[in-house]
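Structure ticket #2291
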Amino acid sequence: MVERRPGLNLLAHAILIIGVLIVALPVYIAFVASTHTAEAMVQVPMPMLPGPHLIENYLSALNGGSNGAGSSAAVGRMMLVSLATALIITFGKISISLLSAFAIVYFRFRFRMFFFWAIFITLMLPVEVRIGPTYKVVADLGMLNSFAGLTIPLIASATATFLFRQFFLTVPEELVEAARIDGAGPMRFFKDILVPLSATSIAALFVIQFIYGWNQYLWPLLVTTNENMYPVVIGIKRMIAGGDSQNQWNLVMATAILAMIPPALVVMLMQKWFVKGLVDTEK
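Resolution: structure written out below.
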């Protein structure tokens, strides 16, 4: 029996409200900045209420061509690049991880566990250790400033492979025997039984990997030099090139707000599946 204490409930809600305010304040300031002119943003004190230039600033950011010292690339193009990159990385990671875990669990071949641990050990390698050789390979293959260069080096995932392997190990052996008796081959068993059973895990990984792909910064910073291939996260950095008076901070903040929208929508729309995939034990 849980004892209800009004004082503790009030304290808990107060702490939650303070936490929300701390997290939301920078977002609110960015939104306010995106509704004013660039001149208003360098004044002291800066405005704390929304201004009248919201639609103008957002259209200007989406279409590009600003007069600031930094990049003037169209944010609409950047968001399309980020969306394509995030989706390719997400579906690539899930597909390869499903097939890798399926092979490790259900096929018997020499050095099976060696290959699994070789995949798993890559989690212990810092990104900085791998990024130099990876860049050399991508550059030698002529994949700089391309979607292939942005995505292919990032679509393998040891974490997802490990999670799917652990889930496949919990699938009852009776299902495998029943599928074998019904004449189902390995790929039909994979497609008709394992993938539907993995739906909640796939949904949870989709949210995680989409945000991972959307927020990529270091790798795109290395492999993109053409404005047409900038993801939106790189675009924000490229738009900041000078002092306060030289940057169009209103457009920078508008770009930052636009960059938050797709991952926020993915989390909100898939929240139920995401939570279920992380906590559901009836698998």
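Closing remark: The CA atoms of residues 217 and 234 lie 6 Å apart.
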